[in-house]
Specification:
Layout: H1 20-40, H2 45-117, E1 127-135, E2 143-146, E3 159-161, E4 166-173, E5 178-182, E6 189-194, E7 200-206, E8 211-218, E9 228-231, E10 243-251, E11 258-265, E12 274-278, H3 281-284, H4 293-304
Antiparallel strand pairs: 1-2, 1-12, 2-5, 3-4, 3-12, 4-5, 6-7, 6-9, 7-8, 8-11, 9-10, 10-11
Length: about 300
């Protein structure tokens, strides 16, 4: 048979159909059409929901071992953390028991010394609970509003504290609310006492840094990083011994007569939710005694002359 008469076409079993390039163009166009239709019309969304619903049991089954391994790891981590917390709590409990014993001895000694010197007993601060409602919208001040006011007996100048220390002072009082100026406000000033050296000073708010600054302290002042500062109690407003701040940095410059002492507030100024409003110490002091009759009569006579 002549070679030219042979059928060179592949048998039906080996027919390949359209070329690869043609199929690429068709499927690319179909994919582009589906993407545009899904984006504009959401035609594929029902199909996607059906497929997701059908595959959900399989996904949950495949996640079982992953969740089991994760839960086991979290259990072991939680167990280790609980043991560490228990050991830390036991250590703190032992320290607090020791401090409590020393505190009772100091209180007894203090009472005996006051009896010997005939001094007035320490003033016990009266407090009332309050809740922070919102921050003041003024971006140039650091103030919050609490839900206690004149109706509840709040007065201007009352210190405001939380469980960690002083956070501010009441500067405006309304019938049902009060405005509290935080310690980091530019107008905030609070007398403090260095608990290590018993040296008094004045701390000013530093809103740019979000802390405080102990000003007008000489460069040779005995102040160290980590020193705790508390209220001094000599201003007639704050009760003594309330935590105020901790010294974070001390800069001593040769060209200045004062050191730059930066403080970190002890109270949770930005996250405090429930606070205590303390009555100013000056309102709790007994009134001054009346002058003796002879002295009062002498003053009246001098006034008539």
């Amino acid at each position: 048979m002549p070679l030219g008469t042979l059928d060179r076409t592949p048998p039906p079993f080996f027919r390949q159909g359209p070329s690869a390039f043609t199929r690429l163009v068709v499927f690319a166009a179909l994919a582009l059409f589906l993407m545009v239709a899904d984006r504009r019309l959401g035609v594929v969304e029902p199909l996607r929901a059906v497929i997701a619903t059908a595959l959900h049991p399989m996904q949950q089954a495949l996640q079982v071992p992953v969740r089991a391994v994760r839960a086991g790891g979290e259990y072991l981590q939680g167990l280790a953390a609980a043991r560490a917390s228990e050991a830390e709590a036991r250590r703190r409990l032992a320290d607090q028991a020791e401090r409590l014993g020393r505190l009772e001895m100091l209180e007894q000694e203090n009472a005996r010394l006051r009896d010997m010197l005939n001094l007035r007993a320490a003033v016990s601060a009266r407090t009332q609970a309050a809740e922070v409602l919102y921050d003041r919208p003024d971006p140039y001040t650091r103030k919050v509003v609490i839900d206690r006011g004149l109706t509840q007996g709040v007065v201007r100048g009352s210190p405001v504290i939380d469980h960690t220390g002083v956070i501010g002072q009441v500067t405006r009082v309304y019938p049902l609310t009060s405005e509290v100026t935080l310690l980091v406000d530019k107008d905030a000033v609070i007398p403090v006492l260095n608990t290590r050296t018993q040296v008094r000073g004045v701390a000013y708010g530093d809103p740019q840094r979000g802390g405080l600054e102990l000003r007008f302290m000489p460069t040779n002042a005995d102040v160290r990083e980590g020193d705790a500062l508390a209220t001094s109690g000599v201003d007639g407003v704050y009760p003594p011994g309330l935590p105020v701040a901790v010294v974070s940095r001390v800069e001593r410059r040769a060209d200045s007569a004062f050191a730059r002492i930066l403080l970190e507030p002890a109270g949770q100024l930005s996250s405090a939710r429930h606070v205590l409003v303390v009555e100013p110490v000056g309102r709790q002091l007994p009134p001054p005694p009346d002058p003796e009759p002879e002295t009062a009569a002498a003053r009246r006579g001098a006034g008539r002359r």
